[in-house]
Amino acid sequence: MLKTLHQIASIGIVTEPAPDIDDTLRIRERLNERIRAVLGRALCIRHIDAGSCNGCELEIHALNNPIYNLEGLGIRFVASPRHADLLLVTGPVSRHMEAALRRTFEATPDPKLVVALGDCGCTGGIFGESYATCGRVENVIPVDVAVPGCPPSPTRILQGILTAVARSPASAASADLDTINLSVPPPE
User: Fold this and answer.
1) b or e along 153-165 (b: 16 or more beta carbons within 10 Å of the residue's beta carbon)?
2) Model confidence over 100-128: pLDDT tens digits?
3) How far apart are CA 169 and CA 148, in angstroms?
4) Residue 15 in 3-state DSSP?
5) Which run of H or of E encompasses 7?
6) Which stretches of the chain are assigned E, i.e. beta strand?
7) How far is CA 164 from the centre of its chain?
8) For residues 93 and 140, what is the distance between their CA atoms, to the nearest angstrom?
9) 43-168, which class in CATH?
10) Region for residue 99 given its phi and psi (left: phi exceeds 0; alpha: psi -120 to 50; beta: otherwise)
C-alpha cells in the first residue's frame, strides 16, 4: 500500500482539463424560465388514469427519476385538479371513468391544458369504442396535444407536455418567448 501511495505522490494528478462551458446545453434553465414566464409559477400536472394498462404510467413515473428530473424543470405532479394547470390522461376512457374525467376537467381552473397520452388515449388503441369504453380522450373532453406510442418514451411525454405549454393561450401573449429553444436532448 505504501508503494502505491508513493507512486501516486511521485506522478501527481494526471487528468484531462475540464471542457469549456457551453451555454447552449443549459436547457433546464431555459425551460424553467419559459414555464415561469407562461404560467408565473411551476407547471402543475394532474395525471388521470382513465382505464389504461399502466404501461404509460411506468413511463410517467420514469420522468421523476434522476435521469429526466421533471421537478428540476419546474414541473410537478399534484393530487388535486384544483391545483393543476395540465391534465395528463392515459388509456381509453372507460364508461365508468367518463363522468369522473369530465368532473376533473371541470374542476381544473382555466386556462387548462389536456395531453392525451399513448395510443389508447389518442385513438382508443386496440379497445376502440365499445359498450365498455368511450374510446379516445377527445371523445369526452377537448385535447390540446396527443402523444402517440405504446407506451411513449419519457422524452416523448416531456416533449408533449412542453408542446402543450408552448401552444397555450398564456404563451401566445408572450411573443418574445419563442426565442427559447424547447428541444429536449435524449438522455445519455
Assistant:
1) ebbbbbbbbbbbb
2) 999 999 988 888 889 999 888 888 887 87
3) 23
4) coil
5) helix 2-11
6) 43-49, 75-77, 86-90, 93-94, 113-117, 133-135, 145-147
7) 10
8) 8
9) alpha beta
10) alpha
Give whole-number Cα distances, 15 to 1, 18, 19, 21, in Å: 22, 9, 12, 18
What type of residue is 133? T
Separation of alpha carbons 80 and 108, rounded Å: 9
pTM beyond 0.85: the answer is no
DSSP class of residue 17?
P
Q: What does residue 145 show for φ and ψ, rounded to 5 degrees?
A: -140, 135
| Residue whose C-alpha is closest to residue 162's, from 29, 32, 59 | 32
- Distance between CA atoms of residues 96 and 32, nearest Å: 37
Residue 130 and residue 94 in contact, taking contact as beta carbons nearer than 8 Å: no
Q: Which grid coordinates are listed for 118?
A: 399513448
On the CB side of 23, how many CA atoms lie within 13 Å of its CA?
2
Q: Is the pLDDT of residue 179 over 70?
A: no
Q: Can you tell me the distance from the alpha carbon of 31 to that of 24, in angstroms, rounded to the nearest whole number?
A: 12
CA-based angle 107:135:156, to the nearest 5? 75
Average pLDDT over the chain, rounded to whole? 79
pLDDT in tens, 147-172: 998 888 888 888 888 888 877 665 54
